[in-house]
Amino acid sequence: TAHAATANGGDVIANLFEWNWKSVGQECTTVLGPKGYGAVQVAPPGDSIRLSDGTHPWWDVYQPVGYDLNSRMGTEAQFAAMVTACHNAGVKVYADAVINHTAGANQTSADSYGGASFNPGAYTYGSIGYDRSSFHDYPANCPNAGNVINDWNSAQQVQECQLVSLSDLYTEKDDVRSKIAGYLNKLVGYGVDGFRVDAAKHIAQADMAAILAKVGDTRWGGRPYVYQEVIPGGSGQLAPSAFEGNGSVLEFTYAHKLKDQFNGSIANLKTFGQSWGFEPSDKSAVMVTNHDLERDNSTLTYKDGSKYTLAHIFELAWGYGTPQVYSGFRFNGSDDSPPADANGYVGDTDCSAGAWNCADRTPGIANMVGWHNAAKGQSVANWWDNGGNAIAFSRGNAAWVAINNGASAVTQTFTTGLAAGTYCDVIHGNPATGGSCTGPAVTVSSSGQATVTVGAGDSVALYAAGAACTG
Ligand code: LAG
Ligand code: CA
Asked: What does the alpha-carbon distance between residue 423 and residue 401 come to, in Å, rounded to a whole number?
């Protein structure tokens, strides 16, 4: 199938958590490409266990049972069509790669979404070719009976025991490495451009390096973009920084501290960066939240309303790391299924029905992707804050934003860094090239100043490239 010749060059990742392939493809075509997103992160595309109790929790896809691509999200053909649709929209595709483990050894179901044959209790996965010798075990590898992790500061235990009873692959073995790489190469063959590596902390760095060395270049050239899930807290070999050699690292500390400021005083964000304990910007995959964090209350979530939107606006404006925008399904219990049919196959995303929260489409967030792209390479300048919950800054002379996380409107004459002219406020309307704004316009004087009112829990954002308008 035909793919576009090049990616659009953006770096913002839309994390469309557990959207089915048909809906991801449509989102690439109608929203992500047009708004300038550089990539989409999709759910684990391999076959996974299907529990026998009919509950279909979201987390069954984190229990791989086969490396064919028939899954809860669709068929292999639908996966391939999704990648092509995204590529044709200029959007790269990053897959969630669950390669540390297979299904739980404590599971009894032998059913899957794609029809793989396996027996979790016996550690046999016929469709892949894994048997008991493909997995770590007590006492040869894991020192604890039951293969449990007792000491989270022990690299041996974290990497060779079982994370929540999930059968832990013997990634020191070349045969296991080749099978994992075969799966990743299959994805690359369909056009996948990168991987969110699930449970990367639980895979020894040397094993990950050896697996990646067996994976080919992407269709658009160059190495796959790798960003690893390493939950902070460990030191030495288990510290996030110890994983930089294999790629970028998901920035949990960023997400936690961002919540703290939005629930405190966002004026503190003036110094938000590596000095706060983050990985270097070029190794940081930053986020407001993800599927685990929105369930453990450690980050802002869609349930936080305007703070959630404003946090995404800040993340896109600030320019630290590679930013993600998170769009998942609304939930009550932390084991809920995404909206699905009786057999657990995920239904089409409906952003209007209330079952899904499509932050990637939220007008202010979606238009801030273009703002982010226009600000590329420009430093933060013209910082202003009121000592509390209102801030403003520019990125050089390319773009300017004000964010009001407070309870009342703020009216202020700001130094914007922008050239004199009339600019569309892209939070409340679309950018217009040469035409009229679809929302409010802001006039910047010859001294670069603008008098602006920023509503409570709201934002105003202007940028030069593509947004200047006749008002
Ligand atoms: C991850 N990153 O390292 C994912 O972001 C996280 O969502 C995954 O856990 C985890 N690692 C394994 O890929 C999720 C759920 C767990 C769930 C697990 C496997 O948060 O609750 O465990 O996926 O489906 C479930 C049960 C456990 C059970 C286990 C194995 O909750 O009680 O022991 O399955 O049967
Ligand atoms: Ca492991």
From this structure: 12
Strands 47-48 and 92-97: unpaired
Q: Per DSSP, which regions of 160-201 are E strands?
A: 166-168, 194-197
pLDDT number for residue 433: 67
User: Which CATH superfamily groups domain 380-463?
Assistant: Golgi alpha-mannosidase II (2.60.40.1180)
pLDDT value at 470 more than 50 = no
pLDDT at 1: 66
**425: annotated active-site residue:** no
Tokens of 246: 């294999």
Pocket test of ligand 1: the residue of 55, 58, 62 to mutate, having most ligand atoms within 8 Å of its CB, is 62
Q: For residue 230, how far is its CA from the centre of ligand 1 (angstroms)?
A: 15
Query: Which CATH number among 3.40.50.150, 1.10.10.10, 3.20.20.80, 1.20.140.10 corresponds to the domain 13-374?
Result: 3.20.20.80
Local confidence band at 254 (pLDDT 50, 70, 90 cut-offs)? very high
Q: Where are the domains of the chain?
A: 13-374, 380-463
End-to-end CA distance of the chain: 43
Annotated catalytic residue: which of 18, 96, 198, 251? 198
Q: What is the pLDDT of residues 346-361, one digit of tens each?
A: 999 999 989 999 999 9
Return residues with CB closer than 5 A to ligand 2 (ion): 100, 159, 168, 202
Tell me: pLDDT of 461 over 60.
Answer: yes
The number of CA neighbours under 13 Å toward the Cβ of 117 is 4
Nearest CA to ligand 1 atom 22: 164
Examine the residue annotation and report whether 18 is marked as an active-site residue of this protein: no
Atom of ligand 1 nearest to the CA of 166: 30
Judge if the upstream peptide bond of residue 139 is cis by omega within 30 degrees of 0.
Answer: yes
Average pLDDT over residues 8-20: 98
Pocket flag, ligand 1, residue 98 (CB < 6 Å): yes
* CB 59 less than 6 A from any atom of ligand 1: yes
- Evaluate: CB of 198 within 6 angstroms of ligand 1: yes
Model pLDDT for residues 59-98, shown as the tens digit of each residue: 999 999 999 999 999 999 999 999 999 999 999 999 999 9
